[in-house]
Amino acid sequence: MDSLGPHYRALVIGASGTIGAAFVSALQADSHCAQVTELSRRTTPRFTLEDEASIAAAASALKDQGPFALIIDATGALTIDGVGPEKHLGALDAHKLLRSFQVNTIGPALLLKHFLPLLRSERAIFAKLSARVGSISDNQKGGWYGYRASKAALNMMLQTAGIEFARKNKQAVIVALQPGTVASPLSQPFASASHTISAAESVSGLLKSIDALEPLSGAHFVDYAGQPITW
Length: 231
Hints:
Layout: E1 8-13, H1 18-28, E2 33-39, H2 52-62, E3 70-73, H3 94-115, E4 124-129, H4 145-166, E5 172-178, H5 199-211, E6 219-223
């Protein structure tokens, strides 16, 4: 991460997941990174996406470890409470839709609320794992209603937060990330091994992608190959 300069501090939220853990490993191997702080359901402090009080408490507890030059939010879920994405309208269920928004939109929005203030005042990056299926203009196959809609709503949260935060720090970058189809427990039921990439390959590409991004009034949306994705 050359753009962040020497001795920068990083925070990985959702560090216990497949991609989150890969981010931690990659950042620990970066000679420019002085410190990598991990946050998940298993760490101390800990948090849950469904509980804002736990998010606020975690942010308060980690404040003294910052300010952070890089915050990565690797939270989110495709299968929730053992239920995967809907394939057709007839499968829609109000409770399952609410859970998808709770985990993929509302929780991450509250993480933005409490952790964006922990970014340093010079060049800094807040990166959030999103999904290509959250692009409204790129939707070619349909299906996956709750996951698509919750990720599209997440992207709007990021875009809106990016506009607001640019007024406070013109050097900050807010970015939604498409990691590719990473071989993980999340993707295993839905993708063949031949169509997946490793978490290490995904994270390596994502870090290169965000390192090259310039600040703007709003958020970026890019994939692990550095290609922009339309909203």
